[in-house]
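Case study 2.
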Amino acid sequence: MKAVDIVPLSASSPGEHIDAWCRLDRLFWLEELPGLEPATKAETLHELEPGIASRPVALLAIDEGEVVGGYVSSEPLMEDTDTAQGWIVVDGGHRRRGVAAALLDAARETHVANGRKKLESSVRVGSAASAFTAQAGGTITQIELCNVLELERLPSELATPPSPPAGYHLRTWSGECPDDLVAAYAAAHAAMNDAPRGTAEREGKSYTAARVRDAEARERRVGITPLTTAAVTDDGEVAAYTDIVITGRPTSVIQEDTGVVRAHRGHGLGLAVKLANLHDVRAALPALRTVITWNAETNRHMLAVNERMGFRPHSRWEEVELVL
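Prediction:
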């Protein structure tokens, strides 16, 4: 096949280019995560939104005026500044013609020019993307599970959220974190630095109120609404939190981070905030049927919490690293 044209993609690209990437992103979900509702346009646009903690790098492959593939990535700006995280999608009718290789070559050139030394991605175990990544020299750093909760599987005894332990109370908000809690909520994000990372070397993330506000603004610009529940101590410390994002999928939401600060573990706070959060999301979205999340296969504690709620594995994914 003749060489495809590689062009940059951004939030300000022509509408037909944005629509083409949204189509490819939807294709990815339908093929790699069958049975789940695909990503909405809001989710796809969110990938192209810059922020203080990361910048997007995105490319499209065009053949005779037709968008046949795309690459979207994020370059961290506050930690792991030698790394990028991205993935490639190629239209089904244009595979095995060098499109993915052309996108990877162009991505490599851009990331190296930006001082990046490693490219991280996630590919489904046994997929064509897994084979392509291995051939390109990628190494597996850990296995991640896509877990799904069909709400009909939620145990009846968990339908009503339990009260938090003595010394804690629950706060829930939609969209922006309340001003009186934002600094404590930012500090609680350090709990996620304990999450399993496999063999990947990563720096711990440091959150501030400004970083939280920037992330909220990025979501607000594209129409994504997070619903957050936190367990708060009597002196105002956020001891645990969890986020579900409402993206416009008709009957599905995405469960994002659940973190419990190390000094407050062992009190059931993870389950308490997740159940309270789920209860409020169900009240806000009567049509809700499915919750989708990802967990490292070695994160036995969080997997045990999810299994108790009724989450079941949908698919296994390889987190991979490619030296640029």
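The CA atoms of residues 191 and 261 lie 5 Å apart.
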